[in-house]
Design brief:
CATH topology of one domain in chain A: Thrombin, subunit H
Largest sheet of chain A: 6 strands, antiparallel, barrel
Structural class of chain B: mainly alpha
CATH class of one domain in chain A: Mainly Beta
Radius of gyration of chain A: 26 Å
Distance between the termini of chain A: 58 Å
Number of domains of chain B: 1
Helix content of chain B: 55-70%
Distance between the termini of chain B: 30 Å
Order of helices and strands of chain B: EEEHHHHHHHE
Number of strands of chain B: 4
Number of helices of chain A: 4
CATH architecture of one domain in chain A: Beta Barrel
Largest sheet of chain B: 2 strands, antiparallel
Largest interface: A-B, 66 and 64 residues
CATH superfamily of one domain in chain A: Rod shape-determining protein MreC, domain 1
Radius of gyration of chain B: 19 Å
Oligomer: heterodimer
Strand order of the largest sheet of chain A: 1-2-5-4-3-12
Mean pLDDT of chain A: 82
């Protein structure tokens, strides 16, 4: 299309000034953007209240969309279930029988565990989630992997709390609004999670790669002992996540670790639970600068 | 009586007698559609990859290229700020990149005043590629090679979506000038 006449001010002084002011405003906008960007890269918490407020405003709409989305997904899987009902039924019956036996065995183990713990006087109460909510949306267009949660400070959610689904770890609360909060998914390339291999005490770090895979980095280098299909659980190091929650399964091996696929894919996640921080003291100590005293005299931040 | 010039009573925007354009709709519709475009990616599923095109930026490009002269040069800053609230990018990345895009297209208008749709599409694709790459670099995350590769599908999808966005904007532009009954 042809450019409009607005761009050619001609001899009109007024039009010339309008045009000139527009360019000045555009230049100032660019400058403002550069400054804002610099500040928010330097201080990521900068103006996070503004974002939290904006999230709260659209939360009802995104919540409704999330409900519709998960329900339609349920309908599709119901139809798909009918198509393979016969063979699946037989297979499931066999599986349930085995599972019942294993469940009884697990119950016995649990009882023995409780008895031994009582013997050792270890007290561990049941951990109740702070809040259970839906993942209502995500930053699907950005490189960063954030999700939005339909619960905020009004429900007791605080920054740093781990977010888990029934399948495994989803991420960690990054920003809190009144009725919504932002979750840093473990797939984000800024996320590092201490993990261990299930079955033994092989410890590693699971780092997000930004392309839907996690990089497993072993702490002890040497011969790579990993095998494809190894399951990684949270190790509890760092103090945020309770140990023993499933994180990822190894799919590729490399010299110093491997690549793993996340167990709890956010796309397949409906409701998630926000858990309290596993060891708040450890987190506080890790956050405290080395010059400051920690303990009785150290003030809470 | 013979009707005199029957088409004179109406045009593409509706009947003309006792009806007028609404200045509010005419001015607000482009801005509103871009703001809605910024909100749109939030409603999608929590993807493991950045896959959804940046619809807010795409709508801005479409308005600017399909209908030049409507959005002022400085429109990128306020619209980018709104996008930053929801996109997950650090605050300011949208303000900067959207402003730069508007200025770049202004310069393009100076160089190539008369363009075909194909040339607009090329300009939009280049802008989208530059925007996605720059947004990736300033996202605050560690820039890794696999994450860069993961941008590919999103970039392709965005470039292919531009003609649809242009058609949508053309439709909205016609809607923008609908005549409403004058009540006074």
């Amino acid at each position: 299309m042809a450019p409009s006449a607005q761009r050619h001010a001609g001899f009109s002084k007024r039009a010339q000034y309008t045009l000139f002011t527009g360019y000045i405003a555009a230049g100032l906008g660019t400058l403002l953007g550069a400054i804002l960007l610099g500040v928010s890269l330097w201080q990521p918490r900068f103006l996070s209240g503004l974002r939290g407020g904006a999230q709260d405003v659209v939360a009802p709409a995104t919540g409704a969309a999330a409900t519709a989305r998960t329900e339609s997904k349920g309908l599709i899987s119901t139809i798909r279930g009918y198509l393979r009902a016969g063979s699946q039924n037989a297979a499931l019956k066999r599986e349930v029988e085995i599972a019942r036996i294993r469940l009884k065995e697990a119950e016995a183990v649990r009882q023995e565990n409780a008895r031994l713990k009582a013997l050792l006087a270890i007290r561990d109460g049941e951990v109740k989630p702070v809040a259970v909510a839906r993942l209502v949306g995500s930053t699907a267009a950005s490189t960063r992997r954030f999700a939005y949660l339909g619960a905020g400070s009004a429900q007791g959610v605080a920054v740093g709390m781990p977010v888990v689904s029934p399948r495994g770890v989803v991420g960690r609360i990054l920003e809190v609004g009144r009725n919504s909060s932002r979750v840093l998914l473990i797939l984000d390339s800024e996320s590092v999670l201490p993990v261990r291999r299930s079955g033994d005490e092989l410890v590693a770090f699971a780092e997000g790669r930004g392309d839907s895979l996690l990089r497993i980095k072993l702490i002890n280098l040497g011969l790579n002992p990993l095998k494809l299909g190894d399951l990684f659980l949270t190790s509890g190091a760092g103090g945020y996540y309770r140990p023993g929650t499933a994180v990822a399964i190894l799919t590729h091996k490399s010299a110093d670790g491997g690549l793993a696929r996340i167990v709890s894919d956010p796309a397949a996640t409906d409701f998630v639970a926000v858990m309290p921080i596993f060891e708040p003291e450890a987190v506080e100590v890790a956050d405290t600068p080395i010059e400051r005293a920690v303990g009785e005299t150290g003030e809470r931040r | 009586m013979e009707r005199y010039a029957p088409r004179a009573r109406s045009d593409a925007y509706g009947r003309r007698i006792n009806r007028a354009h609404s200045p509010l709709v005419a001015l607000a519709l482009p801005w509103l559609s871009i703001l809605l475009g910024s909100l749109l990616p939030m409603f999608f599923i929590a993807t493991a990859l950045p896959l959804i095109p940046p619809t807010g930026f795409l709508t801005l490009l479409a308005w600017r290229l399909v209908r030049p002269g409507l959005l002022p040069v400085w429109a990128g800053a306020p619209l980018g700020l709104f996008d930053d609230l929801f996109s997950g990018q650090p605050l300011g990345s949208g303000v900067l990149l959207w402003s730069l895009t508007m200025i770049a297209i202004e310069l393009l208008d100076r160089r190539l005043p008369w363009r075909s749709f194909a040339q607009d599409w090329i300009a939009a694709t280049l802008s989208l590629l530059g925007y996605l790459l720059a947004a990736f670099l300033v996202s605050g995350a560690t820039a890794t090679a696999p994450a860069l590769v993961a941008l590919g599908p999103q970039a392709l999808l965005s470039a292919l979506l531009f003609p649809a966005a242009a058609r949508l904007v053309a439709t909205l532009d016609r809607l923008r000038l609908t005549r409403y009954r004058v009540t006074a």
